[in-house]
Design a protein that fits this description.
This protein is of the alpha/beta class and 257 residues long. 23% of the residues lie in helices and 22% in strands.
Length: 257
């Protein structure tokens, strides 16, 4: 059985796998879309004491319905504090208080650095995207970073078209050499697998139910190592996780369909 024939969508699987990376007690800054779905799902399941921060200044929101991004006021419902960008990206991130950042990416490299700025098209032209926003601050200063993206070969690049936000290393130099705190990117979660990013390289930690490890490796065109015994199989979504995604967090399917 392939993942496509499972009773969940590949992006629902991605959201569940990403939520599994959130620890109880985390203070997390999240990007829009799948990162917010994953963080809220974790908070409502295995990580009830985790807290969310939105870069525009919202502290610990508890929305009761879906929202179209972090700037949608529906995402701010139940917040403990309404501050500003400097409160989150300044006092919290620069103050060393944020344990986790969850970011989406257009491209990712073996060190977990990401590109959300521009890509080279086949005709040689450049396509500009949204840029950093708060992504560089989050990747540079959070205790650890989680990257989420669709598993397409063009997104996995040995050399990024543009370096927007740093991972565990940049240009062969480790974070400590660059004056950056924290671990950097610890995992890349796609709709097919979980890649563990370490100082020793990238490892295929797990493949999602129905996925073939060799096919996943073939679709990841940079060096990915496999530990003895092979990769694990990611835990399948539970009925409760799917209920939360489909009825509360993303009922319109903006991010998970």
């Amino acid at each position: 059985m392939t993942q496509a024939s499972q009773p969940w969508t590949p992006l629902e699987m991605l959201a569940v796998a990403a939520a599994g990376q959130v620890r109880d007690g985390d203070l997390a800054v999240v990007g829009l879309g799948l990162p917010q779905v994953a963080a809220l799902l974790a908070q409502r399941t295995h990580a009830p004491t985790s807290e969310l921060l939105l870069e525009l200044g919202v502290f610990d929101p508890h929305p009761t319905g879906p929202s179209m991004g972090i700037a949608d006021p529906r995402m701010w419902e139940g917040a403990a504090v309404f501050g500003g960008v400097l409160d989150v990206l300044g006092s919290m991130l620069h103050g060393g208080r944020v344990s986790l950042g969850i970011l989406s990416a257009v491209q990712v490299d073996p060190d977990g650095s990401i590109n959300t700025t521009q890509v080279h098209l086949e005709d040689g032209s450049l396509r500009r995207i949204n840029g950093s926003g708060g992504g560089n601050d989050i990747a540079s200063l959070a205790g650890r970073t989680l990257v989420v993206l669709r598993h397409e070969p063009r997104r996995f690049r040995a050399c990024l078209d543009f370096l927007t936000s740093p991972g565990r290393a940049v240009g062969g130099r480790r974070r400590s050499e660059l004056g950056l705190p924290g671990e950097g990117t610890v995992a890349v979660v796609s709709d097919r697998a979980v890649l563990e990013v370490t100082d020793e390289g990238t490892f295929l930690h797990s493949v999602h139910p129905g996925e073939d490890p060799e096919a996943v490796l073939e679709a990841t065109p940079y060096a990915v190592q496999v530990r003895p015994g092979g990769p694990e199989v990611t835990s399948a979504p539970t009925e409760e996780e799917l209920r939360l995604i489909r009825t509360e967090l993303d009922p319109q399917g903006w991010y998970t369909r």
